[in-house]
Amino acid sequence: MIVEIFKTNVEKETETNYIIAVIKRQFPSYKINFDLEDRDKILRVEALEPQWNAIVDYVNNLGFSCVRLE
After folding, report:
1. DSSP state of 25
2. What is the dihedral sign for C-alpha 8, 13, 15, 21?
3. pLDDT of residue 45
4. How many CB atoms within 10 Å of residue 55?
5. How far apart, in whole angstroms, are the C-alpha atoms of residue 55 and residue 27?
6. Which of 18, 33, 38, 63 is the most exposed place for a label (fewest CB within 10 A)?
7. In sequence order, which ranges of 1-70 are alpha helices (DSSP H)?
8. Residue 13: which domain range?
9. Which H or E run includes 33?
10. The sheet that has 31-35: what strands, in order across it?
């Protein structure tokens, strides 16, 4: 499994739930969680081959900032 880490500007748990639901519709096997306690509001995605560019696009299209951390 590969874990991709993203910096976001998501603030609320309700927003995280919505974003996770949207991503899981397209990628049901992904394990996804947020760490809103982290100063970078981390989005973590675990999968065999995560499509990190699609994740960035989904989150950005929902009106949030999302940048892959390398």
Report:
1. H
2. positive
3. 97
4. 23
5. 10
6. 63
7. 13-26, 52-61
8. 2-69
9. strand 31-35
10. 31-35, 42-47, 2-8, 66-69
Map tokens 């960035």 to a residue. Answer: 56
Do 64 and 10 touch, CB atoms closer than 8 A?
yes
Q: DSSP state, 12?
A: -
CA 21 to chain CA centroid, Å, is: 10
Other C-beta atoms closer than 10 Å to the C-beta of 66 total 21
Sign of CA dihedral 43, 67, 46, 28: positive
Domain total in the chain: 1
Tokens 């509001």 found at: 41
Give the model's pLDDT for residue 70.
83
For residue range 24-68, what is the model confidence (pLDDT) as tens digits? 999 999 999 999 999 999 999 999 999 999 999 999 999 999 999
- 43 sits in which H/E element: strand 42-47
